[in-house]
Amino acid sequence: MGSAWRGLFFRLSDPQKDPEKIRREYDEVEVRVHPGASFICVESGRPTYKRIARGALQKLSSSFGEVIDLQVSSEGNLHYEHWKNGGLMRALFWAEGSAWEVEGEPQPWETVLGSPPPKSGSQEPFVDPEQVALCISQHFKLPPVTV
Question: Is residue 110 part of a domain?
Fold first, then answer.
C-alpha cells in the first residue's frame, strides 16, 4: 500500500494573530506553525478525495486571504484547490482511470513539471501525483504534513 495524505493550508499574513484566528474558526483544532513556512496546516490526515463545499473554501479564503486544499496518494489520486481572496485560482482533480477535472489558469509551479498543463476531460496522466504535490509544496512553501 502506498502513501496518502491531506492538508488544508492557510497563508500566514500575521504569524502572531493568524494561528489564534484559525483556532477560533475551527473550534480549537491543532494549528501547526513551522519556521520558514508561508502557510499554516490546520487539517492533515488521510485523504477523502471529497471536495470541501465550494462556498466554505470561498468564505475561508475571503477571511484568511489564501487557502489550499491538497490531497494526494501514490496510487494515482490528486485533489488540489487554490483559493485567493474569495476566488478560485486553480483546481485539479485526477483519479487513476478517470478524466481530469480542471478549473482556472495554469500556475507557475506547473511549468516545473515539464509536461503541458492538464485539460478537463483528458485521460492522459499529467505526472506522478506525489511529484505534483512536492512541486506545489515547494512553490508555496507549505509546511510538512503529518499523517
Answer: yes
The per-residue pLDDT for 22 is 79
42-75 CB burial, b ≥16 within 10 A, e <16:
bebeebeeeebeeeebbebbeebbbbbbbbbbee
User: Which amino acid is residue 59, in one-letter code?
Assistant: K
Residue 79 lies in a domain: yes
- Burial grade of 110 (CB within 10 A; 0-12, 13-18, 19 or more): buried
Q: Which of 86, 83, 85 is nearest to 103 (CA)?
A: 83
Q: What residue numbers bound the domain in which 22 lies?
A: 4-140
More confident of the two residues 47 and 129: 129
- Residue 84, pLDDT score: 96
- Residue 90 CB neighbours (<10 A): 20
